[in-house]
Structure formats: C-alpha cells, structure tokens
Amino acid sequence: MPRIDPALLVVLGGVSAALHVGKLPPALPVLQQALDVTLLQAGFLLSLVQLAGMSLGLAVGLAADGLGLKRTMIAGLAILSAASLTGGWAGDVPSLMLLRAVEGFGFLLASMPAPSLIRRLVAPARMNRTLGLWGAYMPFGTAVALIAGPAVIGVAGWPGWWWLLAALSASMAMWLAAALPPDGLHPSAGQGWTHRLRLTLSAGGPWLVSLAFAAYSAQWLAVIGFLPSMYTQAGLAPGLAGIATGFAAALNMVGNIASGRLLQGGSRAEYLLYTGFLAMAAGSFVAFSDVTGTLDPTLAAGLRYGAVLLFSSVGGLIPGTLFSLAVHVAPGEGTVSTTVGWMQQWSAAGQLAGPPLVAWMATRAGGWQWSWLVTGGCALAGLGLAFLLGRVAARSPTN
After folding, report:
1. Domains of the chain and CATH, by start
2. Contact criterion met (CB below 8 Å) for 104 and 53
3. How many whole angstroms separate alpha carbon 204 and alpha carbon 56?
4. Is the pTM of this model over 0.70?
5. For the segment 19-58, what is each residue's pLDDT rounded down to a tens digit?
C-alpha cells in the first residue's frame, strides 16, 4: 500500500465507510422496481443504516476508549464489507433492511474512533484543520457514491454496486492495519467504564453537541437522500439526477473544510453554527415550498437547485464545527471517544428519524411542498442549541 499521512488515511477510512451510506439513494429507483420498495420503505432503508449508531453509539465509544481505536475502526470496515457482500444477494425488502442495519453497526465502528485517532496522530496546531477535513468524510463519500452509483448500476446492476463497495472496504481495512501505528495505552486505561460514562453524561457539553448534530443530520440525509427520487419523478434521467445530487452533497465539504480553517483563525464556533442552521432553513424552504411556483419553470428549477446547494454547502459548517467542539468539551482526555460516541448516537437518531418524517409529510401532502416544515423545525432547534454551546465552549479550558 502507498505511504500516506496517517491522519489523512483515517479520513479515507471514513470515506470508505460513508460510501455505504451514500450507495442507496442512486439505487432506490432500481430497487423500487426490482423489489417493489414503497416510498415509506425507502425512507427506512435510507435511515436504517443509522440504527446501530442510534442505539449503540455511546457503548461503542466507551468500548473503543478501552479496547483500541485502530482495532475498532478496522473491525467496522470488515463488518461493512461482509454485510455489503451479503446484501448483493438480498431478494426482498426485509433482508435488505436487516443488512442495512448490520452495515450501520459497521459504519459506527469505522467512523466513531476517528476524531480520537486524529487527535492522537496530529500536532495541536493542525487539529482543528484536520478535524474540519474529517467532517467532510460523509459528504465526500456520499457524493462519490451518488455520482458513480448510477454508472456502476447501469453496468453491473445494484448487486454489483454492493459487491464493489464491499471490496473497497476490505481493501481499506487492510491498508489501515498495515499503515497506522499500533494502539498504545489509552488515557482511559485504569478508568472504569462507569466512571467515564458518568463523566460524559453529567457534563453539558456532550449533550449539546450531540443534540445539535441530530438537528443537522436529520435534515441533511432527508434532503440529499431523497433528491435522486425527486428528480427522477420530475423526469430527469437517473444518471443526471445522481450527478446533480452528488454535486450538492460534495459541496458540503466546502463548509466542513472552511469550518476548520475559520476555527483555527479564531472564529467563534456558535457563529459558524448560526450561519449553517440559518442557511439550511432558508435553503430547504426555497427548495421544497411553493414559493417559486409563479416563476418560469426553468428559472424556478434553477432557484430550487441553487437553494439545495446553499443548504448543503453552508450547512457544512455545522459538522466540522461540532467535531472540533466535541474534542474541546469532552470532560477529560479519556472521554473523547465516549463523547464522540454519544454525538454519533444522536446524529444517527436524527438520520433515522429525518427521512421517514419527510417521506410521511410528502405522502400526507401529496408532494414535497410541506417538507420544509420538518427541516425548518430541525434548524430552529439547532439555533437554540448553538446559543447554549457558545456559552459552554466559552468556559472550556481548552478554548
């Protein structure tokens, strides 16, 4: 395997895991025909990958703090590979749902230890920038999956798409095993898990970053996850729908990377969060509501797509900022993974709830025009949490 900066390799491991989250949206139109997947079932297929994170994020964070960050990440990629390999043979919706849940467990193991690994591998002067880069792992992986998925599916079918990503994750696990330094004695060694759990859950910071991530992730996966289906329903070819959605997802990286640089330059975290949540609220309102209904159809479509780009790009300030805040507001060096695991648990809860809620709203309304009520409610909650986080972060000794 080629030599690479170990921290960047961790980011690539996260991208490999994120490909499995993003592989489903471009396959949904095909799955709806092949397996008779309903709109509501599609919503659950999009979000079931987050079931393990919603239920086990804190537990895995506690375990990784003691068992080893590198080993945990490699195990996650191996589980993703095995589940995706098996998923290619799924012949019905329940089987596919079950394997998506297994993939969710692998995704949790692969992604949750990364911020602690990055903190261990980079100098403090690089930490905010690198954590901002890590925050881009999900949009980058999702964008690659959305753009490449239709082409692969067109050649090899959706099972071939599943098998290709299984091979990529297996290769990434072997690369990590060979290139990352071995797990050493972690700061949590000698601390009982109950002590670390009590420290984490009795502090306000971990709760606030976790709930704010839920408010963000519920919106992002719902909007990006359903865009290919929305555009296909509007008459756009599946390949073009995937490219349009992939570009929107990729722009999320801009905000993530910018957040690390802005925080390193002294910008206040709560202002970045305010900006991100306001942009998501405005973008989803224009994208989904009937506000453009009186305009020329071509102009209206352009404005709605521009609103999606605003939603994703400026909204990307949120995850990068929250990953950095999670490291700072953790109540101790030995509780960073536990704090990130708690944040991952709430992020997964948001992603599990967001797509079905938007699908339910669209089903009840007979269209997507009221979906902005769901996303706007999440943005409003995020603004309140950002205000509280600003007060907590100001008191953090690491700031």
Report:
1. 6-395 (1.20.1250.20)
2. yes
3. 20
4. yes
5. 998 888 888 888 888 787 777 777 778 777 777 777 777 7
